[in-house]
Amino acid sequence: MSDAVSMPLNCIRDDVLAMHAYVVQDAGDMVKLDAMENPYTLPAELQTKLGERLGQLALNRYPGGRVNELREALASYAGMPEGFELMLGNGSDELISLLALACAKPGASVLAPVPGFVMYAMSAQLQGLAFHGVPLTADFELDTPAMLAAIAQHRPAIVYLAYPNNPTANLWSVDSMLAIIEATGQAGGLVVVDEAYQPFASDSFIHRIANHSHVLLMRTLSKFGLAGVRLGYMIGPKALVHEVDKVRPPYNISVLNCECALFALAHAPAFAAQAQAIKAQREMLLQALAELGVRVFPSQANMVLIRVTNATETFERLKKQGVLIKNVSKMHPLLAECLRLTVGTPEENQRLLLALKEAL
Predict the structure, then answer these.
(1) 307 in the same domain as 324
(2) Is 355 exposed, middle or buried (0-12, 13-18, 19+ CB in 10 A)?
(3) I want to staple 124 with a disulfide (CB 3.0 to 4.6 A). Which of 110, 132, 195, 256 is the partner?
(4) pLDDT tens digits for range 4-27
């Protein structure tokens, strides 16, 4: 019986068997400040309008021309340069996977600064590409000489530069990024500037990508306020996006994804107001956290990274008080004793501060 039960697992790749699945924490009824979500729901009036709109959709049909209307709306919203194209994904995660699939030539690799978004490495591994992580400096800045040396050594097919970075929440030097972009181009690779947290940042690379034929810019509507909708998009030169788009599954964007996104873009000012409220709360949190005596790192996202004396103990104490954050202290040596806090509503942030004061 034991042999019969174990035989199906023989079909699974050894590296997959050895992997750890991406873990989503169970928030229950806790204050949920662990996943960088926009804490605000739609105003009641917009909820009613969206519900009516979704109720009229032909769910018996595959997605059609409305997907192209969404691509045009996103291109206009983002300010896409002339001669560029836009590709849709079921969240940024799918786009990252599709890029790895499209570039999975024998011996190809992916390179990114670390600590960074875990899906860069995970998607590379699942598609058979090597992953090379280049440590940031102690202050979470790009180590430009180390990045350039790694590019020269490994000649990666893809270099990811998150702007701002997750989980460190900071923007990097534009000059450093341009040097890395130039070196990657000379090595024959692609650069993906990941702007998942663009609604909360003071800068964007969108006005710089037109100068480079090997740079893609990736964004998501998750931080915009639609994390549950699962919709990401990628902008790049037409010829390049055309090739990557060949590996995209047909109908990867449902009619529900599409219509929710079109509705949100039509009411963009409401979401922009939410982003402004989040940024104001972020500045309040940065100051209040510093006054608690913890190490607070600069943030250009809807999260704040802090360093405490004992991250695991503090994390568990916060959970007992009904506040869920992210313990990132084991993700990378540079993140020793670090916790990542999502910026919530004013009420949630006050609960966080009171709980953290008690936990410390």
Answers:
(1) yes
(2) buried
(3) 110
(4) 555 688 888 888 888 887 777 787
Overall number of domains in the chain: 2
Same-domain status, 263 and 301: no
Choose among 91, 123, 119, 92: nearest CA to 108.
123
Which long-range contacts does 259-263 make (Cβ < 8 Å, 24+ apart)?
259/53, 259/54, 259/57, 259/66, 260/50, 260/54, 260/226, 260/229, 260/231, 261/70, 261/73, 261/74, 261/221, 261/226, 261/229, 261/231, 262/66, 262/69, 262/70, 262/73, 263/46, 263/49, 263/50, 263/53
Q: How far is CA 325 from CA 24, 163, 311, in A?
A: 12, 22, 11
Q: φ, ψ for residue 96 (rounded to 5)? A: -60, -40
Question: Which residue is it, tokens 């449902």?
Answer: 254
Reported as half-sphere exposure (CB side, CA atoms, 13 A), residue 220 has a value of 25
Query: How many other C-beta atoms can be found within 10 angstroms of the C-beta atom of residue 307?
Result: 15
Q: How far apart are CA 35 and CA 18, in angstroms?
A: 25
15 and 130 within one domain: no
Give the domain range for residue 355.
2-44+269-359
246 and 280 assigned to the same domain = no
Rounded Cα distance, 161 and 114, in Å: 10
Residue 324: Cβ within 10 Å count: 19
Burial label for 288, CB within 10 Å (0-12, 13-18, 19+), is middle
